[in-house]
Amino acid sequence: MLKALSRVGAVLAACLMFTSWSLAAPKAAVALEPFTGYLMAHFTGESANGEQIYLAHSDDGLRWSDLNNGGLVLRSTVGTRGVRDPALVRSPAGDRYWIVATDLRIAAGTSWSDAANRGSTSLVVWESSDLVNWSAPRLINVAGAIPGAGNAWAPEAVYNPETGDYVLYWATNSPRNGVTKHRIWYARTSDFRSFTAPQLYIERGGSQGIIDTQIVEVPGAVGGYRYYRASADGHITIEAGNSILGTWTTLGNLSHMGISNGTGGGNVVEGPMWAQFNGRNEWALWLDQYATGRGYMPVTSTNLGSTRNFRTRSDYGMGTNRKRHGSILNLTAAEENRVLGRWGATAPVNRIQSYNFQTRYVRHANLDVRIDANVSPAQDAQFRLVPGLANGSGHVSFASVNYPGYYLRHYGFDFVLAPDDGTATFAADSTFRQVAGLADASWSSFQSYNHPDRYIRHYDYLLRLDPIGDAQSRGDATFRVTS
């Protein structure tokens, strides 16, 4: 899905809708260090925490590993409080980065009809100078000035050397010439704060809409063109041009490969996502097989000048998290080291063994938490002990292995497995200090962060948070962290 930004009107009244246009141009492009890896930003789906920002890393551009132990990396606290379709943008000088995303949270109970016709006309933006430390999210109302605009979906942005700024483009559903459908709009920006007024960018004929568009710049104009764009418009249509805001030539679609966006049947996909392989003239176009739920697949080419040059691949892996519409950034070694240093360390998978019922392990079942023997499926009893959400020093939180983003927390002194909702209360309820076992110092006990007079213990096999005062409760509150 596409991205766009709004511009300030010259008149004072227009300033209520748009921010003023900044004439400050980005720094000149520099020769970046050689690329060594790849970073993908994505969301995972319509679950409680699925519509947030997740990251994945690849060494070879085909096999991906989830970062941050599979947990979300950035959470939207503005607008609908959910984001989809994130785009990663790097400045020409390599000194500034942005994530721009759709302001939409279907998991909150919003229908697709409401989202398309009465949804947010804003996008969500984060900004960083190092890909690691990100600003608070902010809303930019890019589509508010489009008559009858119902939404702003699937943003993307590309630097335009002809104008010295960025073209931010996205899809908006609105009436025009008597037809209401999704079209691609764009605005220009130099800082992702101030924008020109939205302009129509791409429109298909008749009632055919278009939502997901992404552009890739091809060094050396391999295939005869400097830019290529892929769009979901019933097919996956490939176009080419030598100017971002100039004329584009339609090269064809992927119907000959049995791939479409619905009109052509076959393998129905969306969310086209470009990436060049590091160090060579070869490109991957990743396509989300949403109709079958199989997730992203790559088709690759060494010459984008003809759609007949694409080939399917089977030598790829997508990690554990389901990856929905996002974007890929090629990383320099310095960028890769920073990203992996912050989110790449993977905590080991552990089980939590009961001291006084040593055949039983802590597990979740229907989001309740208890100790059981012979746990099936085995991952229900597997957790990662990660730095405490409320206090990372000397404290831990228990992250579920098979429910990424879910943690053990106490609620009314009972234990549940629940998704991190980003609140301070959740963080405190799911943080514990690991201390010497109360029944055996060679084992462990877990003291509550926000109720330090209470410890995790089992009672009638169910996990609780209780004060500990006798030998029985000390045994119940003692556990071994094991593989």
From TrEMBL:
<dbReference type="InterPro" id="IPR023296">
    <property type="entry name" value="Glyco_hydro_beta-prop_sf"/>
</dbReference>
<feature type="domain" description="Alpha-L-arabinofuranosidase B arabinose-binding">
    <location>
        <begin position="351"/>
        <end position="481"/>
    </location>
</feature>
<feature type="signal peptide">
    <location>
        <begin position="1"/>
        <end position="24"/>
    </location>
</feature>
<dbReference type="InterPro" id="IPR007934">
    <property type="entry name" value="AbfB_ABD"/>
</dbReference>
<dbReference type="InterPro" id="IPR050727">
    <property type="entry name" value="GH43_arabinanases"/>
</dbReference>
<keyword id="KW-0732">Signal</keyword>
<dbReference type="InterPro" id="IPR036195">
    <property type="entry name" value="AbfB_ABD_sf"/>
</dbReference>
<protein>
    <recommendedName>
        <fullName>Alpha-L-arabinofuranosidase B arabinose-binding domain-containing protein</fullName>
    </recommendedName>
</protein>
<dbReference type="Pfam" id="PF05270">
    <property type="entry name" value="AbfB"/>
</dbReference>
